[in-house]
Every structure is written in C-alpha cells, then in structure tokens.
C-alpha cells in the first residue's frame, strides 16, 4: 500500500485543471483515485477519458465509475431512448468532443452511437470495467455515497454508489469508514451555493467543488491519519453558475 492517496474530484471535461493537479501527483508515493464523472458538460471529455485510462494502465490509478460515465454507456446501449436526456445532462459536449462540433445535429442518435462504438471500442470496454468504490485503510472512496441504512455498506445497490444524494448526506455514518465522495457539489452541501471548500461532516468528505460550473477542482492528499493537503484550483474561465 502506498503512503498517500491523491483523490481528484469530478472533472467534467476540465482537462486543463486536471493537468494542473497532476503536476503534484507522484506515482511512487501516491495512490491516485479519480472520483468519477470525467465526462460531460465541459469541453475536453476526450482528453480526460484518455488521460484517465492512461493513468490506470501506466500508474495503477483507480478510476471510479460516476453517474455521467453511466449516462454515456446507457446512451451507447439505447441511443434513441437516452439521447435527449443525455444531451440535457451534458452529453452534447461529450459527443462533440469524441466526434466533432455539430455532430449531435448532423447525425441520428443511432448513427452517433454506432460511430462512437466503432472508433472507441477500447475506451468503452475500459469504462464498462470501472469499479464502484475503492477501500484504502480507514477510507472509502466512492462517486456518490453508500446506503447508510444497510448493516453492511457493501450491500449498497450499485445505482446508489453512483447516484445517491440526501439519504447519504443526511444519514448517520456508522460504517467505521471515512467516506470520500464527489457527485454533489460542495456549494450545495454547504447550503449557500457559493462555498467551494471541501465539505466535511460525520466522517464524510465531499470533494466536488463544482469546477465545471465555475467553481473549483480539488486534489486532496490523505495519509492514514487524515487530510494532509488540499490543492484547489479555481475555474476562472467563467462566472459561477448555480445550474445543477
């Protein structure tokens, strides 16, 4: 087991901020954990996807499945059913990053899915294999959270690992684990739709600072005792947007 974990919050196509954080990543001492949602909404999903895959293959990084990876895979599986819901949740940016600008208007949903499946088979196979959680000592890393009503959190429904919100945020954590998660932006967890700092409560640590909405991207370094560094980069390309 490496001496530290380096956990990175939801990227959503913010490749440039991703690169800034990776300057502090040392594979010799850090276990890198990508908390999921590398795609959708932001402009550079393709670069984020392939960087994530490379880090897993070359440095042993952990890339967790998020609900937006799930959206993407569901669209590819049933394009006619999922096309418009996926577009409403940031899928247009992903499709155009993987194909080209205007692709969502130029082709039918089925044609889009066929082209992506044909051109990116290795990537799709990789995304299908992403784990739902990662345990490291007293820490549990997961995209959205766990079902705190289960006697054993391992029995959480697979969809809850990537989708759960309030029941996890508000439930009592009796798992014995410090749970590090993304999915819900920390400005929402703080209750003011402004504060992008980490959200820490009841041995739960929210690290999604809402970078794609004009918030910030966190890279959090843990040792066995707690947080030793929080590297936060603000997304200065646009004003804060409270759409979610």
UniProtKB/TrEMBL annotation:
UniProt xrefs under Pfam families: Metallophos
GO molecular function, one term: phosphatase activity
CDD domains per the UniProt record, alphabetical: MPP_PPP_family (cd00144)
GO term, biological process aspect, one: RNA decapping
SUPFAM superfamilies for the chain: Metallo-dependent phosphatases
Gene Ontology CC: cytoplasm
Coiled coil spans: none
Name of the protein this chain belongs to: Serine/threonine protein phosphatase 1
Organism (species): Candidatus Enterococcus wittei
